[in-house]
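Reminder: ligand-aware prediction takes two inputs, not one.
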Amino acid sequence: MKTPGAKKWDGKEKTADEFNEIARNIFAPVYPVIARQAIECCGFDRGFCIDAGCGPGHLALALASISGFTIDALDMSQDMLACAKKNIQNAGMSERIHPVHGDVHALSYDDCSVDLVISRGSVFFWEAPDRAFAEIYRVLKPGGRTFIGGGFGTPELKAAITAKMNDPSFGEKVRGNLGHEKQRELRICMKDARIRDYEIRRDASGFWIVMRK
Ligand code: SAM
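Here is what comes back for the chain with S-adenosylmethionine:
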């Protein structure tokens, strides 16, 4: 199923460098909060993790810095991966985080080989979330978890970042992406992917699809 309003990420709206600047200067405080929430939610802090649609890699970096995970930072945009590679090198994390070119709809991992899949702000661009969810579920190990969705960590951070962005179209996009209708669409995609053991965790700052295998 295509989710209505889903827009393929083509890098035209913002280049990878522009997105990286915003992530470094405005979104920065959300990544450590979300990384901590992902660990608390999955209940383990080591193993093999994929950050799906990693962009410039800030969530992967935040997770690596508070856990023992080895992480593949996966993205379909080579420009984003080039930014991610620089950020990972600058943080001295090249041993733990590996930039990987890939599409979440066709992952090049074996069945049951991944402990955790995290993903922030990417699901809204996936062309066929049902296929992507089925693919992610396939590669999860038994006992594996996901933390896939969008958000800002806390309502306070969401308010502060929305104010800093100072762009009405940003607020509108966030309302569409994080609203109930989007979650309803994604539940249909989960049903189409035949994944039953999951929940959507949400608060006023975002939502996260937590699959359990
Ligand atoms: N997760 C990062 C963050 O929160 O800073 C980046 C979010 S950015 C809004 C969305 C990212 O998803 C882009 O880097 C885009 O290239 C990536 N993306 C979109 N569709 C994808 C797909 N099918 N497979 C892999 N990456 C994808």
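The CA atoms of residues 143 and 213 lie 5 Å apart. The radius of gyration is 16 Å. We will return to this case in the review session.
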